[in-house]
């Protein structure tokens, strides 16, 4: 234990760097996922069959092929086609596409849950489709999206240790180095799990705060108006 | 570029791994279904010093990466073969998801059902086995199906504890024949071909049970 603690002290900077890499991957992956989710989610509601069907197919494809395989495909197979991406970029792209596809269902569902009368009223007021979406539908759909997005965000965080399998020096990788250096297996893994748990709790709390604010702005949460 | 001969050679290797993948999914999900119900029932046991620690442990397992849990179990629990260990870890991880599913299902059983049981003074075991659980499980079947599909797609994680499932086979083939493109593309195709029809099936079940 004493060896572990002194080694831990020495490798704290490396672990901190690993944590930053993990947070960076989570943030970038989530940003890409958000873009993909809105693009595919809105396309899935298009009136054109081609757009709708295309979005459906892309979502099914991205959800149906395992995230693990997608990441490995980008890292190992894509270079054989002549495109080589940085390992971190492979991760961000795989996380973004995979969780974006799950998010597309969230966006589609939340928009569908806004009462049709809201859209009808906006049409009656002469609003165009873009304005309607931006000013009427999305602000009401937004609070509904946050709880499922919170789950997806934590799922994404929990998927980031995959990066350590494609040579990225993330949190898992750095703590594994510490484990190899000390042989303090139980302590190293427990520490690692605790750090992930703390980050997940922080992300969850942040999303809960976002949800409260979004609801308060709409006046649907207690006391607000 | 895509090499048809390499793909033809990779296909049997990938498919042989698919057998292990399916086995791991079935066994892992069996663990998850049973342990998940156990967790849900313990959390509702009404005994605080059981319900609280079980709930806390489940929340911890649920919000930490299964990959790290696999690494940890791999070095901390000696003497288990890779498949058993992997199935147990993956199964217990999913049990913490399923316990929430069961909980929602149990909560959704109308209060009148409980009251009727009390009025008939049914024994507690019988209340759960004959009245509450059959209705709760029916409600959550589609969710269970979705989690089964999602577990199926997470079985490649077991390769880190040396289970020779499909993606590990694909990876080994890819490195020995320098044919990652063919082997990983085939693995992706198998995942898609297996999980997409299943998800359609679950969606139909969902529509059927909805009314």
Automatic annotation (TrEMBL), chain A:
Pfam families noted in UniProt: BPD_transp_1
Protein name: Ectoine/hydroxyectoine ABC transporter permease subunit EhuC
Species name: Streptomyces roseolus
Coiled-coil ranges (or none): none
Similarity annotation: Belongs to the binding-protein-dependent transport system permease family.
Transmembrane intervals: 20-44, 65-83, 186-210
NCBIfam families recorded: ectoine_ehuC, HEQRo_perm_3TM
Keyword entries, A-Z: Amino-acid transport, Cell membrane, Membrane, Transmembrane, Transmembrane helix, Transport
ABC transmembrane type-1 domain segment(s): 19-203
Automatic annotation (TrEMBL), chain B:
SUPFAM superfamilies reported in the protein's UniProt record: MetI-like
InterPro entries: AA_ABC_transptr_permease_3TM, ArtM/GltK/GlnP/TcyL/YhdX-like, Ectoine_EhuD, MetI-like, MetI-like_sf
Keywords annotated in UniProt: Amino-acid transport, Cell membrane, Membrane, Transmembrane, Transmembrane helix, Transport
PROSITE patterns in the record: ABC_TM1
PANTHER family with a match to the protein in the record: L-CYSTINE TRANSPORT SYSTEM PERMEASE PROTEIN TCYL, MEMBRANE COMPONENT OF AMINO ACID ABC TRANSPORTER
Entry-linked NCBIfam families: ectoine_ehuD, HEQRo_perm_3TM
Protein name listed in UniProt: Ectoine/hydroxyectoine ABC transporter permease subunit EhuD
Gene: ehuD
């Amino acid at each position: 234990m004493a060896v572990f603690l002194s080694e831990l002290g020495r490798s704290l900077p490396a672990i901190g760097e690993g944590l930053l890499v993990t947070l960076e991957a989570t943030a970038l992956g989530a940003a890409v996922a958000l873009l993909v989710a809105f693009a595919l989610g809105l396309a899935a509601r298009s009136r054109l069959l081609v757009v709708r069907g295309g979005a459906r197919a892309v979502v099914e494809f991205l959800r149906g092929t395992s995230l693990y395989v997608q990441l490995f495909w980008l890292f190992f197979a894509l270079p054989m086609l002549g495109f080589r991406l940085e390992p971190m970029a492979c991760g961000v792209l795989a996380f973004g596409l995979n969780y974006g596809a799950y998010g597309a269902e969230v966006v589609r569902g939340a928009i569908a849950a806004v009462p049709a009368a809201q859209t009808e009223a906006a049409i009656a007021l002469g609003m165009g489709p873009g304005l309607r979406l931006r000013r009427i539908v999305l602000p009401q759909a937004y609070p509904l999206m946050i709880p499922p997005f919170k789950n997806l965000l934590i799922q994404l965080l929990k998927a980031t240790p995959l990066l350590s399998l494609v040579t990225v020096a993330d949190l898992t990788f750095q703590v594994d180095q510490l484990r190899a250096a000390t042989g303090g297996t139980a302590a190293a893994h427990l520490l690692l799990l605790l750090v992930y748990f703390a980050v997940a709790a922080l992300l969850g709390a942040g999303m809960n705060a976002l949800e409260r604010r979004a609801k308060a702005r709409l006046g649907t949460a207690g006391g607000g108006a | 570029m895509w090499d048809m001969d390499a793909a033809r050679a990779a296909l049997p290797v990938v498919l042989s791994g698919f057998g292990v993948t399916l086995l791991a999914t079935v066994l892992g999900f069996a663990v998850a279904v049973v342990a998940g119900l156990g967790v849900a029932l313990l959390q509702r046991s009404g005994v605080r010093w059981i319900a609280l620690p079980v709930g806390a442990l489940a929340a911890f397992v649920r919000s930490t990466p299964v990959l790290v849990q696999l690494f940890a179990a791999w070095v901390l629990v000696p003497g288990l073969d890779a498949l058993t260990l992997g199935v147990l870890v993956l199964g217990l991880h999913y049990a913490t998801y399923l316990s929430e599913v069961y909980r929602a299902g149990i909560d959704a059983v109308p209060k009148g059902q409980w009251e009727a049981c009390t009025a008939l003074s049914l024994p507690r075991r019988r209340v759960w086995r004959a009245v509450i659980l059959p209705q709760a499980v029916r409600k959550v079947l589609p969710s269970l199906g979705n989690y089964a599909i999602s577990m199926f797609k997470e079985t490649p994680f077991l390769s880190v504890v040396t289970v020779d499932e499909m993606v590990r086979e694909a990876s080994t083939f890819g490195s020995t024949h320098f044919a990652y493109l063919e082997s990983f593309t085939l693995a992706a195709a198998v995942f898609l071909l297996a999980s997409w029809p299943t998800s359609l099936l679950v969606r139909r079940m969902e529509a059927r049970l909805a009314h």
